[in-house]
Write a structure and sequence with these properties.
Radius of gyration: 19 Å
CATH superfamily: TolB, C-terminal domain
Number of strands: 30
CATH topology: Neuraminidase
Helix content: under 10%
Strand order of the largest sheet: 3-30-29-28
InterPro entries: 6-blade_b-propeller_TolB-like, MRJP/yellow-related
Structural class: mainly beta
Organism: Novacetimonas maltaceti
Strand content: 35-45%
Distance between the termini: 22 Å
Main location: secreted
Number of helices: 3
Keywords: Secreted, Signal
Largest sheet: 4 strands, antiparallel
Subcellular location: Secreted
């Protein structure tokens, strides 16, 4: 996820049935009175630690572990943007040092600029979401700067097999955040300029949908560790961020980082003949999720949603019933989760809210090292 400028106050769009949510001024504000958990769960095991923030993890079916390091992560050790982790935690630049040397080469087409997400696709390849030189939360992105792109890596050979420019789907305020797959279609979130991006892999066509819709626009404050998330003296806003495709491929779940979560048929998103109004009529409220850092979905359709305020992971059934999977004081801003081939749930705890951007004194309060945790849940993975 990323930081964005707060929106002007407006009317509340969401129904009053949203649990404890309160309609206040600019939107729906979550009650923050609850106290974050102060205990540790024995079910949560440390997999890796790092002096640099790792905001995403992806584990191959043969057990190789890949991570990404966001540019906002802080820490006191330089290193790569995308890496493969050795069993001892050593981070090897992946696929090679050149792809991780944009600061020196400024080769936008052959280097990672600002990576926000990584994941394995149905093709078994590692897909990297590079947001480019997005000017987050302020002035428009530089018109001549690096554009967002996807980088596809064959981990069997270590070779980049494809790059996909997302310039055609980008606006001056775009921040491409994450992606999911459905057959030959890619779905991506734009957390900077609210909307979803639909990419037809057969034709190459890129379309923006649900632009500035209530489902893609952050309309309520965000909370972490019991505190309102503030940047530059104003409540932080992050538009469309998390997304998941149901195991049967019929539904896309998505949300701003502040919640709530919405659901829409994938067939409606893929129907280019639908008008914006007709598509928006297909969107339904799914669950009043809290401020969220990351999500995952298992083969039975259960969603795993991090609660950055109460430091827990929720499990939400396909019917929308939520229970607490684990609550642990170490889960400070749990971000992009991953369900591995052996059914383990991997959880990076990135401490985003403790970085200098979100601290009132403008200084980092990261408690290093940060960690990636795992829970042996014997879940059914879905790709």
């Amino acid at each position: 996820m990323r930081l964005f400028r707060s929106r002007p106050a407006g009317r509340c769009h969401l129904p009053a049935l949203l649990g404890l949510a309160l309609c206040l001024g600019g939107g729906v504000a979550q009650a923050a009175a609850a106290t974050p958990t102060r205990t540790e769960s024995p079910a949560l095991k440390v997999a890796y630690t790092s002096r640099r923030v790792m905001n995403a993890v992806a584990v191959s079916d043969d057990g190789r572990v890949f991570v990404s390091f966001p540019y906002w992560g802080g820490g006191d050790t330089p290193g790569p943007t995308v890496a493969e982790l050795a069993p001892d935690g050593t981070a090897r630049p992946y696929p090679d040092a050149k792809w991780n040397s944009w600061d020196t080469t400024h080769d936008n087409d052959h280097a990672f600029v600002r990576v926000n997400a990584i994941r394995f696709g149905p093709d078994g390849k590692l897909w990297v979401v590079d947001s480019g030189e997005a000017n987050v939360g302020g002035a428009p992105n530089p018109p001549t700067g690096a554009k967002a792109k996807l980088v596809v890596i064959d981990i069997a050979t270590g070779q980049v097999t494809r790059t996909i420019s997302l310039a055609d789907a980008s606006t001056p305020h775009t921040y491409i955040d994450d992606l999911r797959f459905h057959g030959s279609t890619l779905f991506l979130t734009d957390a900077g300029d609210p909307g979803l991006v639909v990419v037809d892999m057969k034709t190459g066509r890129q379309r923006r949908v649900l632009e500035h819709a209530r489902s893609t626009t952050d309309e309520r404050p965000m909370y972490a560790e019991g505190q309102l998330l503030v940047s530059n003296g104003r409540p932080a806003r992050v538009h469309t961020d998390q997304l998941e495709v149901s195991p049967d491929g019929t539904k896309l779940y998505f949300q701003p980082s502040s919640g709530p979560m919405w659901v829409v048929p994938t067939a409606a998103l893929e129907d280019a003949t639908l008008s914006p109004a007709a598509l928006e009529q297909q969107v339904r409220l799914f669950h009043d999720t809290p401020t969220t850092g990351g999500t995952a979905i298992d083969g039975d359709g259960n969603l795993y949603v991090s609660d950055t305020n109460l430091l827990r992971i929720l499990r939400i059934t396909p019917e929308g019933r939520a229970t607490t999977l684990v609550a642990d004081r170490r889960l400070v801003w749990a971000d992009a989760m991953w369900i591995a081939h052996d059914g383990a749930l991997w959880i990076p705890a990135v401490q985003l809210n403790r970085t200098a951007t979100f601290e009132r004194d403008g200084r980092s309060h990261l408690n290093l090292p940060v960690a990636i945790y795992r829970m042996d849940l014997h879940l059914r993975p879905v790709r």
